[in-house]
Amino acid sequence: QVQLVESGGGLVQPGDSLRLSCVVSGGTFRTYSMGWFRQAPGKERERVAHISWSGGRTSYADSVKGRFTISRDNAKNTVYLQMNSLKPEDTAVYFCATSGLATPTSQSYEYGHWGQGTQVTVSS
């Protein structure tokens, strides 16, 4: 009964910022590494960011590096994705997901629990 609920998406203009949140319930949050994925229409799901169990290690897709920041608050069972300098190509549904692996690859199959997604649209 692990559940993940994303929030914070919306319609913004290029250059704007958004912060996505993902609250995890029904599990032991601190034992999960966490990832943020996105999927745009007609495109494959891609991982944009990952954070370790402790929050001390992060990784990013090249397309978002320097613009996005992943973080977590284990006391709140929440992972965040701060998105700055948004571009139209960032438009997608964003999902958070859990992994029992310390260093999962960017492949979806290495993540076990998924949220429902939150829409991010970047358009002029």
In short:
The protein has no helices and eleven strands.
How is the secondary structure organized here?
Blueprint: E1 3-7, E2 10-12, E3 18-25, E4 33-39, E5 46-51, E6 58-60, E7 68-73, E8 78-83, E9 92-99, E10 113-114, E11 118-122
Parallel strand pairs: 2-11
Antiparallel strand pairs: 1-3, 3-8, 4-5, 4-9, 5-6, 7-8, 9-10, 9-11
In one word, what is the shape? globular
Number of strands: 11
- Ends apart, CA distance between termini: 40 Å
Please state the CA-atom Rg, rounded to the nearest Å: 13 Å
Report on the biggest sheet.
7 strands, mixed
Give average pLDDT, whole number: 95
Structural class, from helix and strand content? mainly beta
Order of helices and strands: EEEEEEEEEEE
As a percent range, the share of helical residues equals under 10%
Number of helices: 0
**Beta-strand percentage?**
over 45%
Poorly predicted regions: none
Q: What features would you highlight for this structure?
A:
4-stranded antiparallel β-sheet, mainly beta, globular, 0% helix, 124 residues
